[in-house]
Write a structure and sequence with these properties.
This protein has 402 residues and is α+β, with helices and mostly antiparallel strands. It folds into three domains: 7-95, Orthogonal Bundle (Butyryl-Coa Dehydrogenase, subunit A, domain 1), CATH 1.10.540; 129-238, Butyryl-CoA Dehydrogenase, subunit A, domain 2, CATH 2.40.110; 243-395, Butyryl-CoA Dehydrogenase, subunit A, domain 3 (Up-down Bundle), CATH 1.20.140. The protein contains twelve helices and ten strands. The strands form three sheets. It has a four-stranded mixed β-sheet. A four-stranded antiparallel β-sheet has the order 2-3-7-6, with no helix packed on it. Strands 9-10 form a two-stranded antiparallel sheet. A hairpin with an 8-residue loop joins strand 4 (175-181) and strand 5. Helix 3 packs across helix 7 and helix 9 (323-348) runs antiparallel to helix 11 (359-366).
């Protein structure tokens, strides 16, 4: 097995790391860089995105002929980790959720006409997007078959009614993908639709406050009360909504992990720097065995996560869906991000708990990692299903059996 990356990708990773260190990380120390919800303020974001484009680092996950750098999952894993060494990083490179997953979905599934209208503006950074799937109980969440939002054909048009919530980015999004029930079949009863923010028949009921810092546009509750769409708004085909969801969320779960590894590495770097310089009772913190154990464990856990993410990325790039690999990576990396950041705060003491570093930001953000795109327990059940189905073949070194 070859775990090396090609020289061109290695050079690009170094270029991204330098850009993050020199251009983005310094912004974190200035309170004026933040909006009211703890993210980079939009005028500053637009400035940084222009700098990213000028540096030739824009949208590495997008094909070259569409304005990106043309990298697949392996390249994305390499670069996203470097980008999220800063809390502001991914959105500056147009690699942040939910746009990242929505671009992948539309590029893979949309018609040429749909790409021109719904995808290209997201790639260029002209608009933001959202994926509206999750519903209040008794509606669909991790189990899409429970979907309550309906789309009914009337006079040749689709009329949509229902409610969604915790829709990431909705308050800033212009382009939406919506999952609605169009039939009673468990696997073929859902359909994905595309719509624009300015169309009538829906509204944002509220922006839901959350524990951590928020993506631009927050997490919103949406009400659909007669949104009416033509057939050209159907993505992939009527009854293909579950397939759309699987394609949309599969790689998106792994890209979360790619980014979270960068945050975890940043947390360790802050803690290690503090431990090297902080002295108490006659010795540096870094000389204490208890601190060495915490930092050593953190380094090991992150490296395990990197290997897991890269193996899943390699399998995807070579034709596998890598579902069990993605689930394992999602569990491990989300858990290590929480543990590593907590230990980093403990090492830094009051400084770690304060806003003098970004550790408290990462810690609040990290808690959602155990929930978004499938809770830990759901992914454990996915892994068990593959174990029961495949027996000893589960442990194979090949592409895996999907």
């Amino acid at each position: 097995m070859d775990f090396s990356i090609d020289p061109e990708l290695a050079r690009l990773q170094q270029k991204v790391s330098r850009f993050v260190a020199e251009e983005i990380i310094p912004l974190e120390a200035d309170p004026a860089s933040y909006d009211d919800h703890g993210n980079i303020r939009l005028p500053l974001l637009h400035t940084m995105r222009d700098k990213v484009k000028q540096a030739g680092l824009w949208a590495p996950q997008i094909p070259v002929d569409q304005g990106g750098l043309g990298y697949g999952p392996v390249g994305m894993a390499t670069l996203y980790e470097a980008m999220n060494y800063s809390i502001f990083g991914p959105v500056c490179f147009n690699c942040a959720a939910p746009d990242d997953g929505n671009m992948y979905m539309l590029n893979k599934l949309a018609s040429d006409e749909q790409k021109a209208r719904w995808l290209d503006p997201i790639i260029k950074g002209d608009v933001r997007s959202a994926f509206a799937m999750t519903e209040p109980a008794p509606g669909g969440g991790s189990d899409p078959s429970m979907m309550q939002t309906t789309a009914v054909k009337r006079d040749g048009k689709w009329v949509i009614n229902g409610r969604k919530w915790y829709i990431t980015g909705a308050a800033e999004a212009e382009h939406f993908t919506l999952l609605a029930k169009t039939g009673d079949d468990v696997r073929g009863g859902l359909t994905a639709f595309l719509f624009h923010r300015d169309e009538p028949g829906w509204h944002i009921d509220r922006r839901i406050g959350i524990m951590g810092p928020e993506e631009h546009g927050g997490h919103c509750e949406l009400v659909f009360d007669g949104l009416t769409l033509d057939d050209d708004r159907v993505l992939m085909g009527v009854g293909k909504g579950l397939k759309v969801t699987q394609i949309r969320l599969g790689l998106a779960r792994l890209t979360h992990c790619m980014r979270w590894l960068g945050l975890a590495k940043r947390a360790v770097a802050i803690a290690a720097d503090y431990a090297r310089n902080r002295e108490g009772f006659g010795i540096k913190l870094a000389e204490r065995e208890s601190i060495q154990m915490k930092l050593g464990q953190a380094a090991m856990d992150i490296e395990i996560g990197r290997v897991m993410v890269m193996r899943a990325a390699w399998r995807i790039e070579n034709g596998s869906k890598a579902r069990q690999d993605i689930s394992m990576a999602k569990i491990h990396v989300s858990q290590l991000l929480n543990k590593v950041t907590s230990d980093a705060i403990q090492i830094c003491g009051a400084r770690g708990y304060s806003k003098d570093t970004v550790l408290e930001w990462i810690y609040r953000y990290a808690r959602q990692a155990l929930l978004v795109d499938g809770a830990t327990e759901v992914h454990q059940m996915v892994i068990n299903r593959f174990l029961m189905q495949n027996g000893d073949d589960f442990w194979g070194w090949g592409l895996g059996d999907d």
